[in-house]
């Protein structure tokens, strides 16, 4: 009998009910249990210290009271691994700070990685001036600055001209991100420690100069990978099937470097292939603890990650980061 099958490990999860429903599937619970991992819900309304023992805690919260409980736990029980630290998660709640790490990456082998040109706007009254001074070119995507997973944080607009900017109903700080033609396909890269998987999804279609001149002023949508009905075409499936995934070695290098730079283990990032430059890719968004259940074989990948944690492999980002 292997050591893995003889030893049992307890992993606590502190997740919102919606996340529990999508992530803690029977298929995940059963596979994890078969391999020595028992997943237990953490009651966030009760003292965390009273719910021990746990070998590891996974969570998706930056609430101040929860952060205090985690800090106390780490002081009194340093052997418990917390995935991930709240201060690192917090960085992804801002669409400016989330992408800063991308510019630190050093990618070799003829590829390059970056982010689209973007500018943050605190005051809607200064909108036009911000665009002019930043050198942004239309079309642009207007996104709320705060990216905390709420419905409001996903409300975006594709804006084709200055008139479209003036027509935006904006009551909070936001960012304007230059839209880059990318073949209508977005690559979603899921990261769970050293385990990485890239999938392709349909995205907003390319916009030609001709279309730009005759388009309406702006179009609203919820997420860049959810195209509005008027933009969907019959050949959408063929478009995705025809698109080549980026080289696995390139995806792994970007994901691994991002993981170290962000000091996070559980996240995904949305990446597009810049149609203007050969070998150029752009990261447009990063999300903490995404919808892993949408990923093929997510149960196996997450269980492997849990085993990495409890066996304290150096490939797991340190809890002390």
Automatic annotation (TrEMBL):
GO terms for molecular function: ATP binding; inositol-1,3,4-trisphosphate 5-kinase activity; inositol-1,3,4-trisphosphate 6-kinase activity; inositol-3,4,5,6-tetrakisphosphate 1-kinase activity; magnesium ion binding. Mg(2+) 2 binds at residues 285, 287. It comes from Salvia splendens. Its cofactor is Mg(2+). Kinase that can phosphorylate various inositol polyphosphate such as Ins(3,4,5,6)P4 or Ins(1,3,4)P3. Keywords: ATP-binding, Kinase, Magnesium, Metal-binding, Nucleotide-binding, Transferase. Pfam families: Ins134_P3_kin, Ins134_P3_kin_N. Residues 105-318 form the ATP-grasp domain. Belongs to the ITPK1 family. One of its GO terms (biological process) is inositol trisphosphate metabolic process. Binds 2 magnesium ions per subunit. InterPro entries: ATP-grasp (IPR011761), Inositol_tetrakis-P_1-kinase (IPR008656), InsP(3)kin_ATP-grasp (IPR040464), ITPK1_N (IPR041429). GO terms for cellular component: cytoplasm. Mg(2+) 1 binds at residues 270, 285. Its EC number is 2.7.1.134. ATP binds at residues 95, 143, 177-188, 203. It catalyses: 1D-myo-inositol 3,4,5,6-tetrakisphosphate + ATP = 1D-myo-inositol 1,3,4,5,6-pentakisphosphate + ADP + H(+). This is Inositol-tetrakisphosphate 1-kinase. Monomer. 1D-myo-inositol 1,3,4-trisphosphate binds at residues 19, 60, 154, 188, 287, 291. The lineage of its organism: Eukaryota, Viridiplantae, Streptophyta, Embryophyta, Tracheophyta.
């Amino acid at each position: 009998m292997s050591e893995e099958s003889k030893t049992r490990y307890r992993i606590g999860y502190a997740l919102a009910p919606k996340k529990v429903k999508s992530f803690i599937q029977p298929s995940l619970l059963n596979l994890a249990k078969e391999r020595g991992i028992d997943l237990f819900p953490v009651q966030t309304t009760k003292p965390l210290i009273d719910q021990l023992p746990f070998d590891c805690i996974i969570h998706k919260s930056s609430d101040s009271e929860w952060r205090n409980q985690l800090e106390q736990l780490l002081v009194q029980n340093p052997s418990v691994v917390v995935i991930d630290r709240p201060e690192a998660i917090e960085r992804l709640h801002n669409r400016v700070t989330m992408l800063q790490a991308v510019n630190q990456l050093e990618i070799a082998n003829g590829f390059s990685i970056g982010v689209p040109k973007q500018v943050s706007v605190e005051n809607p009254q200064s909108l036009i001036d911000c665009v002019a001074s930043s050198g942004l070119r239309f079309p642009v995507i207007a996104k709320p600055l705060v990216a905390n997973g709420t419905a409001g944080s996903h409300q975006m607009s594709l804006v084709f001209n200055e008139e479209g900017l003036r027509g935006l109903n904006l009551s909070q700080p936001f960012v304007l991100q230059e839209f880059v033609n990318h073949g209508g396909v977005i690559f979603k890269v899921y990261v769970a420690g050293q385990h990485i998987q890239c999938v392709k999804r349909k995205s907003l279609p390319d916009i030609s100069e001709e279309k730009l001149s005759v388009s309406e002023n702006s179009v609203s949508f919820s997420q860049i990978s959810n195209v509005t009905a008027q933009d969907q075409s019959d050949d959408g499936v063929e478009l995705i099937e025809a698109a080549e995934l980026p080289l696995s070695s390139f995806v792994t290098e970007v994901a691994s470097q991002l993981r170290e730079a962000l000091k996070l283990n559980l996240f995904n990032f949305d990446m597009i292939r810049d149609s203007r430059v050969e070998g150029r890719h752009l990261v447009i968004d990063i999300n903490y603890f995404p919808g892993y259940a949408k990923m093929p074989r997510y149960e196996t990948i997450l269980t492997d990650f849990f085993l990495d944690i409890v066996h304290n492999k150096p490939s797991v980002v340190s809890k002390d980061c």
